[in-house]
Amino acid sequence: MVELGKRKRDKNLLNQQLREKIQKLKEKRNAVILAHSYQIKEIQEIADFVGGSLALSYKAAQTQAKVILFCGVRFMAETASILCPDKIILLPDINAGCPLADMVTAKDLRELKKKNPQVKIVVYVNSTAEVKAEADVCCTSGNAVSVVESLKNMGEIVFVPDKNLGSFVKKKTKRNITLWNGFCPVHVKISAKDIENKKKLYPDAKIIVHPECIPEVVDMAEEGLSTGGMCKYARENTKIKQIVVGTEIGLLHKLRRENPEKDFFPASESVICPDMKLITLEKVYWALENMKYEIKISSDLRFKAKKAVDEMLRILPQ
Ligand code: 13P
Ligand code: SF4
Prior knowledge:
By secondary structure, this protein is an alpha/beta fold. It has three domains: 2-96 and 276-290, Rossmann fold, CATH 3.40.50; 101-184, 3-Layer(aba) Sandwich (Rossmann fold), CATH 3.40.50.10800; 187-266, NadA-like (Rossmann fold). Helix content is 47%, strand content 15%. Strands 2-1-3-4 form a four-stranded parallel β-sheet, sandwiched between helices. The protein has a four-stranded parallel β-sheet with strand order 6-5-7-8. It is globular, with a radius of gyration of 20 Å.
């Protein structure tokens, strides 16, 4: 017991020293730290801004800093590089990827367009730059419904790569959408049984889930919302005191911090994204010290991928 307490104190001291070193390096490098809401709490606490994919893209585009240290996964850092070619984008762990993003390739999309040149490809931001370069318009979980609704051409839409978000959009928009067979291995862990159990445990709580969850789970929830949408829901619904949250558990830290008067419960304790959890304070310090790993999209690829991102920003300006 005494040993455990000492270890905890040592860890706290180490983290405090690291935070101070990171702060100094950040100033020296003229860097800003952007963190996705699925990051561990220590990272959320040192970040200049914590948010969902959509908000992080806008923040990256607006910052005056020279260096953007992106605490998230690779596709997010790539999106920042697409939007800010003059900035240095750093990802503290080069292995922080997104298995969902890897479920579709640029080659798949080229073959699809060859077979069906009329098709409109809507690409979820959780995708590689190469895939974005083959798509017509990009979207996030927060704006996918509006992006699809804005498409004038009533022909076939192919939504890549997430079949669950795609199915959510299809239901909301009633458009002719073909779904790609990709999924988030983290969000599909939430089962209908989990939701049933939480409903029994917290009968007064509202249930909100990410649209990357399976349709059965989304149908049982009050709303399907992006991480940014969940924060807004908690902030604006002042009368609601208890919320069951169906997404990666990192978001609960942000929700609790912003709404101390409310109770938040995870829909399932096992919804942990191993890629998001690769980023640590040590790696952030190392990344700023060594200016690694730089994520840079070649200008040719950037030009092509940016068209789909610009189209999203044109439809939904911030
Ligand atoms: P948001 O776009 O809602 O922030 O989610 C990103 C993500 O990776 C979900 O798994
Ligand atoms: Fe990718 Fe899923 Fe992790 Fe989000 S939670 S980064 S979609 S694997």
